Amino acid sequence: VSLPKPPTTTVTALMVLVSACAQPEIKPLMDKPGTEMDIAPFFTESPLPFNYPQFNLIRDTDYRPAFAQGMAEQRVEVDVIVNNVEPPNFENTVVALERSGRLLERVQRIFFSLVSANTNDLLDEIQSEIAPKLSGHSDEILLNSALFARIKNVRETHEALPLDEESRRLIEEYYTDFVRAGALLSDKDKQRLRNINGELATLQAKFSQNVLSEVNKSAVVVDTRDELLGLPDAEIAAAGDAATARKLDGKYAIPLLNTSAQPTLASLQNRALRQRLLEASLTRGSQGGDFDNRNVITQIAK
């Protein structure tokens, strides 16, 4: 289902990056809001193994026009489906929707994989700006009454069609996605849902940025090599390099990883250091300061 759903975790981002690598070459469908040069890397199939994105060809400034173009193209594709004078069927409705948004899908998968691992001020700004726009774009599709009517019609008539099980499953998936997204709500409730989704998208982007920033700045610092007993020499050397990078010459720093547990805990023999590392990991996002996520979580839960 090719609808914009920004990934919010590193694992998800890695999964969708691999999926993005398998995308075939994409052709522009209309005049672009930006210039062709601005988004050319997203149109070109990568020659790298498994079609991994050529990040060396993508500038941070390419993402805004690429997102704009991707959303514009999918709007045109959805309009074609909705305005089709032919009766709705599997090909002209479900398959057509499944094939829509290829450029947007590629752009967002590459972008969110990148910002989940290696971001900067500009990318954070773009993420904060694009998250509610993607939410609105998704709602524009999922809450489209005319489009849902066509999907519903196909679902109600597909038993008489010569379709395989995968195709029938796809019909059910789309119908379920639309219903869960609010397609059966009243117009008033749909608007309220759009507002909520936009707010959630902004908060979720802020949450993700805070998590990554907190992890990047956090590290457990130790004074002596003896405290690192149990770690392989390579990891001890890396801890020394991490401390030097933080201008803590002569010390060792164990950076936190953005995972539910810290792998170093399995090797360290120093109990007190293990406790410090575990506590630092468990209290991420709740230590005060610019990256504290407690208020963000409270707003999301409301």
UniProtKB/TrEMBL annotation:
GO cellular component, one term: cytosol
GO BP terms in the entry: proteolysis
An example Gene Ontology molecular-function term: carboxypeptidase activity
Protein name, UniProt field: Dipeptidyl carboxypeptidase II
